[in-house]
## 1
Amino acid sequence: MTPRAVAATAAKAVALALFAFALFGPLANLVLWSVAERWYAPFKLPVSYGLRYWEIVFRPTGDAMSSLATSVAIAGLTVLVALLVSVPAGYALARLKLPARTFIMIAFLLPQAFPSVAIYINVARIFYQLGLAGTVTGVVLVHAAHGLVYSVWIAAAAFAAVDRDLELAARNMGASGLRTFATITLPLAAPGIMASAIFVFLESLDEFTGTFFVGVPQVTTLPLLLYSASMGGNYQIASITALILLVPSVLFMMVIERFLRADVLSKVGQ
Amino acid sequence: MADVSLSGVMKGFGGAPAVDRVSFSARPGSLVALLGPSGCGKSTTLRLIAGLETADAGRIVIASREVTELPPAKRGVSMVFQSYALFPHLSVAENIVFGLKVRNVPGSEREARLKRAADVLGLQQLLDRKPSQLSGGQQQRVALGRAIVAETPVCLMDEPLSNLDAQLRVEMRREIRALQRRLGMTMLYVTHDQVEAMTMADQVVLMRNGRVEQDAEPDALYERPASIFAARFVGTPPMNVLPATLIISGPGGTSIMTGAPARDPATLAVGVRPEAVRLGEAGVPATVVAVEYLGADTLIETRVVGEPFVVRVSGRAAATAGETVHLAWDPAAVHWFDLSSERRIN
Amino acid sequence: MTRPSPLALLLVAPALALVAALFLYPLGFSLVAAFTADGTFTLRHFEKAFELYSGDIRFTVFIVLLSTVLIALISIAIAGVLTLSETPWLVAALRWLYRWPLFIPFIVAAQCMRTFLAKNGLMNNTLVAAGVLEPIQAASFLDWRGIVITFVWKQVPFVTLMLAGAMASLDRATIEAGRNLGASRLRVLVEIVLPQVAQTLLVGLVLSFVTMLSVLSVPMMVAGSQPTMLTVDMAFRINAYGDYATANALGVISYAMTAVVAWIYLRHQVRREAGT
């Protein structure tokens, strides 16, 4: 290699290393805090390490475990609600004649395309009048509306990616419309719908703003626990909670391409 | 004037080399066709010359200057891509002068060259259009325009006509050839279409499996193919090539050995072009399988000792399927090949 | 269009009802609260909002615009390297690296940055240990810089993912033609690749812009209380004073910011369609 080529390679390696530090540095700090029993200035690294806070978090009777249970329950219910309304809607958008189809598609995007805090403060006020404020039902509804853009758009794309000839073939062999849907269309669209369910689940698990306005003080999800621990200066609990939230997100990032095939992805939003 | 020469050029992408010790050279102002089936390495060879790929070994010289390690911009070659590669966001005029702008050619000079190219290619009315508003043939002209305004001595073309319909292809073939002669460019032209190569080129480099199979002028390629592959790739329908023993052992077989190389017939393959075969009273017996009347001539597909053998006779032939005919030919029309190496003998 | 099927309308009705009840109705509610007092039209709440929060409005616009510009530049750089680099190991490493923050929740990102960017955080400590920084120079980044860094860290992978996908689906021959015509790789990126993926970039940036306008956790956790972003001010008006009128006026101001970028997007879209 010429000296110039060596210098270019070195420059690339250094740039890559800096980039990696910028990406993983913040995550590394999180991991450090989760195992730091004592850490204060001016020490650059924790003064003593240990898993004491992990034990506190995972104590069956602790706040964290009940928050985790609440979070998972809410996310599960949110997926249920979202799929119940979005599978029929996705099918209609992909296969049936709808007036103003584009407007309907955009309508599902709106909850994500508007500054959400301004909406949530009013949802909270309405829910308060209805007695839904501070209830799991209220939080589930808010999360489902927020995740609707994923569930409806991806479901519509998944149905659209199913070869129409397969349905026609089933109908031609004498299957009823409903039977064709249940035995041909739905199973073929299932991976895409599964992906949309994962999206909605994660979206709900990670949701902070809506829960902050609608759920408090009775409903405490993991993000809310993280928030109050962090603002209360308990960085260990906050960091461990953050790590728990991180696991499904990172896992999803690694497997998303397996669920969302390119032919479905290319139809999202159309 | 420019010439292009390659010596011992290699390129692999893991596995068998895509381009394997390729050497040839193009005379200044000539049109050289790189011909071969898909995957034979002809496009990779062209991309190596353009600098879009880097050679693993060997030397590439353009206009007496070694360019093997140079980036594409410094090689002094222009290129026309199979997909035309027009920039969709730029107008026809902007597409054509893009390279001149990059090379800081002064504005007045740019305008002059643009006008010249537009006149030559008949693009005057289309300069403000976007590529998406043009027909396939017009897009092809713009791609040519972009290559010729660069006024590089060497122009590379990668299957430039494969996206056009048959009639337009014939027209563009003539047009490109005329343009190349008029501008005196050295042109390297990649194609898988033997008709295109035979009609346009001064010299044909036939490639197979990454290697040069034969490097010759079109008539030599047709008249003296260097191998069984070359013999069967050029000419429609392809040359009939059979092991010599297959024919000799049959009735009337010994007659074909007139003028054969003095070797063991078991090592020989005999090749006869369909158009060199006559139907007669004596000769090699063959069973007619099918008759295809094409108007000016007729293709008769036969079996000789079970092997397919095609005959081409002018006008309408009086043969019917199932009939037995006798095939004869002039001994001078026979091509002899070595059966194991598949290379030409004599 | 042929006759719409009643079945189709029936099937989308529940989903639309959810949007209407949980988005459109509260949206109307917020507009009414922002523009009326005791049942009559008034701009009083906006006067109050500007009086109290004009600094924060400017601050919010500044943060979101700066973040958007940085996200655009970094995403273009990464996607450009992924598309145009001829160094396979660099491309492979970068492709593996850049996506990590993609699905990390904002609140987790905020917690990471809250520790990483602190005066005694891992960033300063690493810089000091590497000899780049004197210990005395170490300063906390937990202010507007922290918010911008968090936003950029979180949104760059998203925009890069979209952009790199769009670049990958371009006709590679146009890139090679540019190189053949003598353009440097930077020039190919700016003059040939970017104009062809401008649409995708714009969509990614618009979505990021709106997302950043909506995030509450990052400004609350990463920066101190003054100045801060409108989301925090809205939460404060509600939680401290139950002042829905001013909070909703601030909300309408943030809608207006969204409307501006939506308008830019639509104008670009219209011009693009007129062009082809």
Note: Residues 166-183 of chain B form the longest helix (18 residues).
## 2
Amino acid sequence: MIAGGSATTGAQATGPDRWLIRGVTVAGSGGRAGGTADILLSGGSIVAIETGLNHSGAHVLDADGLIALPGLVDLHTHLREPGREDAETVETGTAAAALGGYTAVHAMANTDPVADTAGVVEQVWRLGRAAGHCDVQPVGAVTAGLAGLRLAELGTMADSAARVRVFSDDGRCVADPLLMRRALEYVKAFDGVIAQHAQEPRLTEGAQLNEGEMSASLGLAGWPAVAEEAIIARDCLLAAHVGSALHICHVSTAGSAEIIRWAKSKGWPVTAEVTPHHLLLTDELASGYDPVFKVNPPLRTSADVLELRHALADGTIDCVATDHAPHPVEAKETEWSEAAFGMTGLETALRVVQEAMVDTGLLDWAGIADRMSVRPARIGRLAGHGIPLEAGVPANLTLYDPASPPAAVVPAGASKSRNTPFAGLELPGRVVATFLRGTPTVLDGKLA
Amino acid sequence: MKRHLISAADLSRADALLILDTAEELAQLADRPIKKLPTLRGRTVVNLFYEDSTRTRISFEAAAKRLSADVINFSAKGSSVAKGESLKDTALTLEAMGADAVVIRHPASGAAHRLAGWVRGSVLNAGDGTHEHPTQALLDAFTIRRRLMGGRRGSALDGLRVTIVGDVLHSRVARSNVLLLSTLGAEVTLAAPPTLLPLAVGSWPCAVTYDLDSELPKSDVVMMLRVQQERMNAAFFPSVREYSRRYGLDTARMARLPDHAIVMHPGPMNRGVEIAAEVADSSRSTIVEQVANGVTTRMAVLYLLLGGTQFPAVTQ
């Protein structure tokens, strides 16, 4: 895909100056639908989007057949650093993100130590800047140590260099209704949002797999849909009551989508995300007890998958978020009940979403730009990202080839971990290039 | 037959009948002064037990020894497992020692399935968590056929009505029996309080009732499940006494059974909870026979997985 000849030779050596992306289809700019254009990047910004741009001295990237999306933004990434550098580091996780087309990720707070102080969130933020593959926006914990007992210093994290706006105890639910109410109220002071991991703890003690036919026949403790839906319903009511922003992490059931649709119909300040794996995979994959399919919330039924796709298409669910959760081999090469919850997702997200949403006709590429860049950036209060591509905006963009023939997913990527549930599955598409403020982080599908 | 026996669903009707008929042949050995056959001489069977289960371990050990196999007992308490070795590493160790069959009992559902991915020998599931216990179902089917059908070879359990009573949700015995007995043509009914049935039990090949008493006069077999100690204080039922009152098999309930009906229990029993002592010790009870039949049935399974498809005539 990269044009041959002198235009690209030595791109890495000369660094980010000017790039001309030629003949690309720009997603999310309604006026240009169907046509192609050239995009000129310079000084970290998009200088022009026009047809027939000709700029000598720029590196030329022949983007025939490619789609240009605003750089993808992930609201839900586990980078594992500090604490579990054996599973992932900020360096490897953000490299995986760039390869997946992301220009910004929100790093979840369940590290060790927990990101519940200004010190830890600033550390993660600085590691992200040093890695340079994409922007890293730390998420702060809602409660100290994720213990669910008292609020972390939310305001201090908001005021820190990391400018935290999204707070989450992800991995655990803020189950105490009073604490959840206080958290929602408190973050109004600095335009924060509470991202809830919706899981009623008593209804999910020892839970291993979606409660249904599979859990019954496999003899695994069930994780009932109602345990998610009950918390979502409660928190939507709380958000409405105190007038503060609630975001629901990894929505996994048809019933959850219905509750969120109802809350939005009331005009309540509720947003939601769905993971790529919940848009494609079902609990039937657990039949061989391979813990690569063990995730929290669990894979659900095909009826849930279809309803989640529709909810994403009609905007009930605002965005796709990966919940990229790397784990070392030994955490998965074990009995199901002993294995860690979680799957990697950054490097495959866009391909999975093409399969689930675009190739099914549910969303067009403008819709993908909205659900994977514009809306997650807005929910995360992230400046400089998620802006539809036009002259004058920061040059954060992803070039994607949707016509690349379906190819089997290979677990070996930039992530330190290999726990992808999509290994061996044939998925369409290919991320060709990613630009972060005008600098390529990925070229020809490889780290630049 | 498949190479492993992990779920009762692995067995076709023909497979199940072959095992029962082979067990019937082997049962004749039990009456002979020398109970041992040379069939598995030089083969190694490992008993890999991560849970205390003296009765199942001894049963498998006796079965393997009567077929002249070398038996290695590997229990979690006395080995590196207690020091934190993973199941996979243990599997690789057994593989290196040349185990022809591994009999595994494990507290995690799916452990036998995982093990089968790591060893070349046959894996026999001797109970994995709350999933399955297929040899228990086979010995139960064998016992039912002997008691109610004279042990007639080639015959299945078509039309027999079997009622399984108690904690189905957490019972590997119930899961395996529902699958195997329905494969063999029996009509299985589960009788339990709603809290002790899986939510999706409707998709299983059996009927379900909350009312044990209405089921008893129609039952040829009543199989009582053990109430585990840890369920007793976890809100599955209000009290042990109430459970016993509604689902326990006492003499009054036993009197409602048809004359020919039998009472089964996989053991160990909680006398006075799910079964009254008078019932357990009555002539309808097959509980002691089940233990004896366990050895014979497991011999048949080991033989068929490790040996061959047809049993050399025991009678020669």
Note: The two ends of chain A are 14 Å apart (CA to CA).
